[in-house]
């Protein structure tokens, strides 16, 4: 089905956005009162005596797009469609596409999992060093659940990798790593079971899954964002991790909006 044919009709679309924002019943985002008056597409709370709209009650406040273009942009973002193609589909500029893709990232309702059991851990370099944009990323992969955790880090020193492990991996786990010195002693100091392989001798078997994660991450960045700036890498990693761990969140614009578009109190 063509992506344009997936967009609901205007009345249906407005109803879906209303349900995603308020749930079963519209309420005042300031005081929570469900006794509101409606006039066309605007609402007014008798208690607060303040008006609000469908979009001003959520993080869509100030949106200048119509709902159809919003739906199309969410769909393009979920499908990892490049900026230029998404701008042609939605009829907006590439700058607008980039801005909204970042907003969708910022409002993901997602929490990283706690890993346990057999866990593979490794580090990767993203970006180009000669451009001053290279960054180090630590990652862990749990074999049983196939969940991942990826984080940008400032270095590969032992204290940094230890902190990552203790925060995201249960101490009863079996950790497989390469032969880097930063992983030495995690069994003695923290109680992890630890095995390692020598990548210099082309031994990748025990860490094959986390190596595949790096390949998928680099492909994800190239396909959708082409490149990244170091300031935006943590958000890219969070989106990638959410896509890997909770793929249902990216199946349809409706599921994303129902999960992530909530009415927020006005200030």
Describe the structure.
This protein has helices at 10-22, 67-78, 83-90, 94-106, 158-168, 186-190, 208-225, 233-245, 253-260; strands spanning 37-39, 42-45, 50-53, 118-126, 135-142, 148-153, 174-178, 193-197. With 267 residues, the protein is α/β, with parallel strands linked by helices. A hairpin with an 8-residue loop joins strand 4 and strand 5. Strands 6-5-4-7-8 form a five-stranded mixed sheet, sandwiched between helices. Helix 3 crosses helix 4. The protein is built from nine helices and eight strands.
Radius of gyration: 22 Å
- What percent of residues adopt helix (DSSP H or I)? 25-40%
- The mean pLDDT is 87
Percent range for β-strand residues: 15-25%
Biggest β-sheet description: 5 strands, mixed
Strand/helix succession = HEEEHHHEEEHEHEHHH
Which term fits the overall shape?
Answer: elongated
Helix segment tally: 9
Structure summary, number of beta strands: 8
C-alpha termini separation: 42 Å
- Name the strands of the widest sheet in spatial order: 6-5-4-7-8
* Oligomeric organization of the protein chains: single chain
Spans of at least 5 consecutive residues with low confidence: none
Structural class, from secondary structure content? Answer: alpha/beta
């Amino acid at each position: 089905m063509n992506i344009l044919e997936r967009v609901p009709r205007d009345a249906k679309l407005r109803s879906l956005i209303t349900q995603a924002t308020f749930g079963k019943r519209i309420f005042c985002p300031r005081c929570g009162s469900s006794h509101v008056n409606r006039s066309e597409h605007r609402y007014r709370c008798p208690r607060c005596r303040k008006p609000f709209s469908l979009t001003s009650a959520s993080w869509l406040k100030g949106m200048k797009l119509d709902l159809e273009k919003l739906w199309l942009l969410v769909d393009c973002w979920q499908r990892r469609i490049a900026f230029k193609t998404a701008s042609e589909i939605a009829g907006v500029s590439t700058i607008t596409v980039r801005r909204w893709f970042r907003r969708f990232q910022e409002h993901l309702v997602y929490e990283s999992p706690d890993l346990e059991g057999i866990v593979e851990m490794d580090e990767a370099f993203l970006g180009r060093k000669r451009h001053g944009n290279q960054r180090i990323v630590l990652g862990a992969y749990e074999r049983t659940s196939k969940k991942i955790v990826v984080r940008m880090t400032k270095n590969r020193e032992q204290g940094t990798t230890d902190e990552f492990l203790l925060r995201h991996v249960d101490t009863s786990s079996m950790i497989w790593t390469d032969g880097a010195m930063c992983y030495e002693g995690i069994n003695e100091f923290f109680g992890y079971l630890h095995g390692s392989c020598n990548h210099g001798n082309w031994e990748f078997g025990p860490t094959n899954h986390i190596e595949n994660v790096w390949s998928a991450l680099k492909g994800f960045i190239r396909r959708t964002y082409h490149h990244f700036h170091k300031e935006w890498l943590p958000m890219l990693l969070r989106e990638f991790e959410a896509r890997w761990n909770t793929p249902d969140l990216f199946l349809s614009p409706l599921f994303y909006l129902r999960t992530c578009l909530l009415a927020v109190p006005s200030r």
